[in-house]
Amino acid sequence: MADQRNGSGQPSNAARNVYAIDVEKFKIRLKEFYSNWKENKAGLWGSSDVIAIATPPPSEDLRYLKSSALNIWLLGYEFPETVMVFMKRQIHFLCSQKKASLLEVVKKPAREVVGVDVMMHVKAKTDNGTDLMEAIFRAIRSQPGADEQAAPVVGHIVREAPEGNLLETWSEKLKGAGFELADVTNGLSDLFAVKDADELINVKKAAFLTCSVMNNVVVPKLENAIDEEKNITHSAMMDEAEKAILDPTRAKAKLKADNVDICYPPIFQSGGEFDLRPSAASNDESLYYDSASVIIIAVGSRYNSYCSNVARTLMIDATPLQSKAYAVLLKAQEAAIGALKPGNKLSAAYLAALSVVEKEAPELVPNLSKSAGTGMGLEFRESGLNLNAKNDRMNLHNQTKNPKIQNFSLLLADTVIAGDQNPDVVTSKSSKAVKDVTYSFNEGEEEEQKPRARAEMNGGENLMSKTTLRSDNGEISKEELRRQHQAELARQKNEETARRLAGVGSANGDSRAASKTSADLVAYKNVNDIPPARDLMIQIDQKNEAVLLPIYGSMVPFHVSTVRTVSSQQDTNRTCYIRIIFNVPGTAFNPHDSNSLKHQGAIYLKEVSFRSKDPRHISEVVQQIKTLRRHVMARESERAERATLVSQEKLQLAGNRFKPIRLTDLWIRPVFGGRGRKLPGSLEAHVNGFRYSTSRAEERVDVMYANIKHAFFQPAEKEMITLLHFHLHNHIMVGNKKTKDVQFYIEVMDVVQTLGGGKRSAYDPDEIEEEQRERERKNKTNMGFQSFVNRVNDLWTQPQFSGLDLEFDQPLRELGFHGVPHKVTSFIVPTSSCLVELVETPFLVVTLGEIEIVNLERVGLGQKNFDMTIVFKDFKRDVLRIDSIPSTALDGIKEWLDTTDIKYYESRLNLNWRQILKTITDDPQSFIDDGGWEFLNLEASDSDSDNSEDSDQGYIPSDAEPDSETEEEDSDSESLVESEDDEEDDSEEDSEEEKGKTWEELEREASNADKEKANDSDSEQERNRRKAKAFGKSRAPPRPAPRMPKRPKFR
């Protein structure tokens, strides 16, 4: 029932059946209307006995009316030239025949929900409706419970002037009917304030469109105009933004154009003339972007008549005053948003913003606007909800000679949903960080003003980029700018850490390790289940996982889980011995668990030994016990891992909805278990997650979209694989392995080695053809992955995934550096939100948002390498050390950390971070009082030379790895994809390592001790004579070849 502007309009005959009132929604909202009216009648509704709402005819002007909002909220459409009268027992509609036919469906639900009868008064085209109005007035006077002497109180919207013949007649008749009139504007505002789930979805979609227009249309258009110094007017920019809103495809937003509209004409202002009222208009003046200029942008859009708004301020070569004012404004807005919580008064938002300005910049208090915003929904400004939302404005005056920059204003606006939990800023995708709204041009100009001779001495001119982020007045060096920004980050970080520690409090003890518990071990439920003894010999019951031992003529069963180690040995008389050591709760490496605590008075068997003349039988028993124990431990370990998993939603297959997006011939890491040949599989994107599967039915992995924390796409450039990597919120099982990282990859190059050993000519046709094939294969693979990523990104832009904030991130190789995060030198690469290393295992994925600070250690000692320590916001989490980073990468890492707003420190020594974090968590108040992280400040510590000895106590030298390069060179010929059978065998053997000393070990130690004692008593001459005699009797065994270090398996 709405046209383009105010949502009003009348359907044609052909479109009559298109409009249908949602009866269920009408029932819910009609009940809310009457409940609110009843509860707040004396206050918000002006003690009204009757509420009369008259909706004016449609208009081409963009306007917001309470009457239109009530139509849309209650009925789903606007009904222009319609009068609605709500009474306790009746609802009267005065409208045309077409509207009355549409409203027929509400009669039955209205009676069911609130017990009112709906009365239709159909007005003919030639009738002015006087008689119908008199009938409504008679119904008002005769309604049950009305006082015959006192006039009924009729509530209406005072500020809406009547338009059209029908409404003018109604207003005139209402005033002359002898009723007492009251204003119900505040009641309607309160009714519209709380949004249901459908309304919130409409607001979020509107906010998504607004951010898309700002990020994909407005900002790129402005940057291009500034960069190429184009002359473009404010009104031209307004037209471009409005077209993008009305056609969402221009803003890369997949929303139906029929459901969207502008919230107000986009506002562009610059050149010292600013009007911060929402009714401001973009003039025909040209965009002004000289030094110290400010550009204000405000964009608002509607989806299904629900509004959203965002405003940003761009600063060109900002002055110190402008930079300070913007920083204060940003903090004030964050404080106002933080105050939007249930139970707070409406004034809390403004008072929170005001307190920040009074604390940070008292001189700017007179320039702060008198309102922190208003409520928003069906109306752009809900009059009764002032001071309750998100608009912070500041108008400052700077004394300067240039009239274009004499006056400047700063404006920030966001759309915020104030719910039961923390406020949700739904326009947060449009960045307002300082680094994203400031631009610099002075650096390039000043370079040109320097003497040309200096440039010639350096061999050429220093070419500066046209537009760079985070600028100041151009007179300060890049290092000084970085130092100033780091000082500001240090202040913010200390305040943030203090707030977090004050909220969490100190933790007692170290909760890094958790005690293990085991289930009750039952081999046989009763005695009759024990198999009959054939002979009094050790037996292994594979089915019941038990070891039966002959003790005093009876077969006594022991569950194999109680066995700690088993070993055998043979003496000179060919007599074999088997020794079995059991787990005894309460001893070292065997703490009490829930099973042992139930039987605290129990007596445990520590070990048992048997003698036999049959060495073959003894060997078989030992092997069977070890094998059975290994299988049981593996099963219990997997069961324990699965028990800690977070339950995931079930994968919804694409089916007939759409053809799943598919990528074939992929390998997975970590690999599936088993000793069979590894098989490639395919990755498919379905409705709510990915599925990877091979030709084996049991080899299948589902990765839900909601469980993906970060998604990465890394094409093969200098690596030999192209990969997709998913870092998850919660662990999943891949085969029998529990993991938070799942990777799918393809090898784009084969690892080969020339057996001849000679160098091939650079003009060898075979060599050229081989390189060409590898290049084509790599490009084809990268293009296939890129196509898959683009299609999945398009899928993730759908509204149901908007809350997940999913998008494939691509590592920025130009910012990468070499380091040792685990044991092998790797190439570590930043992305927009993480620091990753995705080629070598174990993988490295560090979320930048989880980083507290970064400490660069062993810096300034003239060494070739330094270390990076990453401290996380969760102080119970171990720090991450990246060792052996080349010193040539230091400046690049500093610049990257500063650009991403991460505070970093430098130190000359490695610190004992576990002890430091324990000290902080044990006594957070002392940490805060001592200046927070400033104890890491190298410049401050240099001035305090008396404490230099104390600082050495935390020194821990980094591990040197001189053989890392040789190890890599020697393993170049190995295939990247190797079978894990050998590794699994090694791990199995390691798991069988005996923790208790066997008789053989004890005898060997005694023999060695006797030999050492004898050697100590011998003279040097006797020892030399024995050596010569031993050498003459037997040849020395061949010297074993040095075992090369294993290359980590590429899983």
From TrEMBL:
Identify the SUPFAM superfamilies for this entry. Answer: Creatinase/aminopeptidase
Query: What biological process terms from GO does the record include?
Result: DNA repair; DNA replication; transcription elongation by RNA polymerase II
The record's keywords, sorted A to Z, are: Chromosome, Coiled coil, DNA damage, DNA repair, DNA replication, Nucleus, Transcription, Transcription regulation
Q: Which residues cross the membrane?
A: none
Describe the location of the FACT complex subunit SPT16 middle domain by residue ranges: 538-692
* Cited InterPro entries: Creatin/AminoP/Spt16_N (IPR029149), Creatinase/aminopeptidase-like (IPR036005), FACT-SPT16_Nlobe (IPR029148), Fact-SPT16_PH (IPR056595), FACT_SPT16_C (IPR048969), FACT_SPT16_M (IPR013953), Pept_M24 (IPR000994), PH-like_dom_sf (IPR011993)
Primary residence: nucleus
Chain positions covered by the region annotation Disordered: 440-473, 490-516, 759-779, 938-1051
Q: Pinpoint the FACT complex subunit SPT16 N-terminal lobe domain residues.
A: 21-188
Biased composition annotated in UniProt, kind: Basic and acidic residues: 490-499, 994-1023
Name the Gene3D superfamilies for this protein. Answer: 2.30.29.150, Creatinase/methionine aminopeptidase superfamily, Creatinase/prolidase N-terminal domain, FACT complex subunit Spt16p/Cdc68p, Pleckstrin-homology domain (PH domain)/Phosphotyrosine-binding domain (PTB)
A GO-annotated cellular component:
FACT complex
Q: Which CDD domains match?
A: CDC68-like
| Assigned protein family | Belongs to the peptidase M24 family. SPT16 subfamily.
* Biological role stated in the UniProt entry: Component of the FACT complex, a general chromatin factor that acts to reorganize nucleosomes. The FACT complex is involved in multiple processes that require DNA as a template such as mRNA elongation, DNA replication and DNA repair. During transcription elongation the FACT complex acts as a histone chaperone that both destabilizes and restores nucleosomal structure.
Identification of the protein by name: FACT complex subunit
Q: Give the organism, scientific name.
A: Salix purpurea (Purple osier willow)
